[in-house]
Known about the structure:
The chain has 118 residues and is an all-alpha fold. It has five helices and no strands. α1 packs parallel to α2 and α4 (92-101) packs across α5. The termini are far apart.
Amino acid sequence: MPRAVDGTRRKDRRKKILDQAKGYYGRRSTNHRIAKDAVAKAGQYAYRGRKEKKRDFRKLWIARISAAVQAEGLNYSQFMHGLKLANIQLNRKALSNMAIEDRNAFILLVNEAKKALA
């Protein structure tokens, strides 16, 4: 009767790690011991990156709004304060898209903010 060894569990566990390490440089993609560390580190970077992505996009939206508003003679903080006084509630993502795609509507918002500030 043949001796039963680890079955496929060991191979499956290693294959899962190596599949996750596909595309990595050098032995990181072929050697289980090294790939294991690389995959663990990649998971840490991915987790951190999901948090950073939210910050990065907010920064991008604010930079776009700021650039569009400066062309109209206001700065970002004055514009946002004017919108608050005018009781206009739009998030930064929507304002950023509006500044890029619908310039005329954005200029109307800037004018409303200027009126509310005056």
